[in-house]
Amino acid sequence: MLTMKFGGTSVGDIERLGEVVSIVKLYLSRKPVVVASAMGGVTDMLLGMAQLAEQRQTQQVTRKIDTLREKHFQVITALVRSEDRRKALLLSQSQIFDELTSLCHGVSLLRELSVRSLDAIASFGEILSCMQIAAILNDSGISAQFVDARSLVRTDAHFGAAAVDFAATNKSIRKVLKPLVDANIVPVVTGFIGSTRDGLTTTLGRSGSDYTGSIVGAALGSEEIWIWTDVDGVMTADPRHVKGAIVLPEISYREAAEMSYFGAKVIHPKTMMPAIENNIPIRIKNTFNPSSPGTLISRTANSTERVVKNVTSIDNLGLVAIEGSGMVGVPGISARIFTALARVHVNVMMISQASSEHNVCVVIPQKDCAKAVKELRTEFEIDIARKIVDDIKLQGGVSIIAVVGEGMRGVPGIAGKTFSSIAEAGVNIVAIAQGSSELNISLVVNQEQVHKAVQAIHDAFRLA
Ligand code: ASP
Ligand code: MG
């Protein structure tokens, strides 16, 4: 049994949906369960529509609903050839659009858009998309059944990013989906949405369909969870910036989490959690190139001899340094730095402290630098006056480069090789950090030099 998740782009138009049918057909003997997103762009449209409804822009709401209806009806007309099936689907989708219209009308009347209403409105995208996928599959001779995940995924009432109640959810998934799979029927399950115990619609957060895929795959004990997307898999580096970047055949869960944290478009770490707990491998596959094996993400990462797997970078960051000879040996300085930053909701991407304790630097998003520096100056006002802290310095326009690989653990010389490759490329390193997991080495460079540095590291470790 396989769980296959198709994202918005993969179900985004007539041609792509045709490809979904071929893919499901190709793997039919492995008993696929399909989890799908809304058609690309639809969730954004629904959310926009909800805002317009709140502002009583009634005409614009109507226009948007018409556009959405047209978008879905075009697909149905093109891909569902059986007249009875087509008519039935057009009818049930018409009813859904009526429901959506009423909901938006309610929001307009009240001029109030709660997170709860927002989730209810956002849920329509996946419902429409999965209904049509099931119909298209049936039309192509594949027995399929639409399954509304609100009857499977039980969540709390944290609308917008609800937390899953796994005990209840796993039980429902097994109860509803297992019999379908056993009867050779392909369930087509809506990603992204769930419901509370009281039956209120919730969503799992943006891009939540991957999470649904992982939840379903884990509950059913799938052989693997396949995330279908538009790239061949996880690469050694961003191919737009690095010559010779290639697809990695295998990485570990930990490596995937680390890479995604550092900006690689892999998979959100939270998404992997159910799969990890049940030791189910996740495979990233390309709908544009289905025969390519993609990247397997699993517990082990040992199949390649690569010590370093991947080098990624994040741009548009600033480095804030808190310096002072009086800071040495004074407890609580770091705690105060982080508390101050948390107070103004600044996310710290990287921390580095020299063992002299003379200097602590934090790397944060560029857009947050001004407020971070202001808050830190206030926090350390007295310390600055007393010369315990000399200054809070800001260096903008920097990037973090992360070198990731489980094989680095316990292998000497990786850091050295990284740094010398950058030095040879003539790039200056501003700051360095290594987590004690030894899974990654992060360094900060000026943004203008980031591509040169990434290429140098990629070449040095012969990642290609
Ligand atoms: N349709 C939802 C979104 O756009 C969920 C998903 O695509 O994964 O966020
Ligand atoms: Mg999406």
Walk me through the structure.
- By secondary structure, the protein is α/β, with parallel strands linked by helices.
- It has a domain of 229 residues: Carbamate kinase (3-Layer(aba) Sandwich), CATH 3.40.1160.
- A hairpin with a 5-residue loop joins strand 12 and strand 13.
- Helix 2 packs parallel to helix 4, helix 8 packs parallel to helix 10 and helix 11 crosses helix 12.
- It is globular.
- The site of magnesium ion has 4 residues, from loops.
Short description:
The protein has 464 residues and is α/β, with parallel strands linked by helices. 42% of the residues lie in helices and 20% in strands. An eight-stranded mixed beta sheet has the order 3-4-2-1-7-9-10-8, sandwiched between helices. It has a six-stranded antiparallel beta sheet with strand order 12-13-11-14-16-15. Strands 5-6 form a two-stranded antiparallel sheet.
